[in-house]
Amino acid sequence: MLDVSNLSVSYGKQKVIREVSFKLEKGEVVTLIGPNAAGKSTTLRTLAGLKKADRGTIHLAGKDITESSTVDRVRAGLVLVPEGRQIFTKLSVHENLIIGAYHRADRDHASDDQERIFSMFPRLRERRDQKAGSMSGGEQQMLAIGRGLMSRPALMLLDEPTLGLAPIIIEELGRIVRNLAREGLTILLAEQNAMMALGCTDRAYVLQSGRIVTSGNAKELSETTEVKQMYLSA
Ligand SMILES: Nc1ncnc2c1ncn2[C@@H]1O[C@H](COP(=O)(O)OP(=O)(O)OP(=O)(O)O)[C@@H](O)[C@H]1O
């Protein structure tokens, strides 16, 4: 589904991502775990076409998208749910969802998809006409995921969905991620919260200072020193 090869990214002269390579198979949930400033958001933003890579290639379902625009990547099935949610706070839940379908050629069917999202997230249905900015952090995160789903993605990039949320909401997010994967969505999660991430993913890559230092299945990785240190700091 996704094949990232030797990706390097800089801000000015500062190299932030160095020769990073990883793969995701269809239907997998894979996490990039790493501490603050490891380069997780930069990696996801580069995959979404919001930041240009210095070197390396990105293939989505066999197609080279390295030079594609963000909109073309969305049309090819890749969507980013950004860190900090970035929903439109002054618009209603319903309006935020409809905006998520904007780049779809078949957006006449958006209301069917909105129904699907409401059945997945009943709390969003109850708040259909509420201004998004007046909802709780957890509800806003669910809306951000729902908005991403409105583009009918094959691959969802989820950047730090647990940020600032209570443990019980984090648990719920873990269940949501697993359910989405069961329905066939491929998910790349970027997380500092190693505990949540390893609990709901198949495999993980540990990113430190812009390099992948170790990778493996979630259970094996939770035993490594790098991850144990992160558990302690999470
Ligand atoms: N727009 C930018 N301009 C310059 N440097 C940046 C910019 N965005 C990020 N960086 C730097 O790139 C490095 C990686 O940041 P990034 O946000 O990708 O890390 P992260 O792993 O997602 O961390 P966090 O969990 O804190 O978001 C950091 O040193 C950061 O200061």
Automatic annotation (TrEMBL):
Cell division as UniProt keyword: no
Keywords: Amino-acid transport, ATP-binding, Nucleotide-binding, Transport
Any one GO molecular function term: ATP binding
Pfam families: ABC_tran (PF00005)
ABC transporter domain segment(s): 2-234
Protein origin, superkingdom: Bacteria
Keyword Nucleotide-binding: yes
InterPro entries: ABC_transporter-like_ATP-bd, ABC_transporter-like_CS, BCAA_Transport_ATP-bd_LivF, P-loop_NTPase
Family statement drawn from the similarity comment of this UniProt entry: Belongs to the ABC transporter superfamily.
Record's protein name: ABC transporter ATP-binding protein
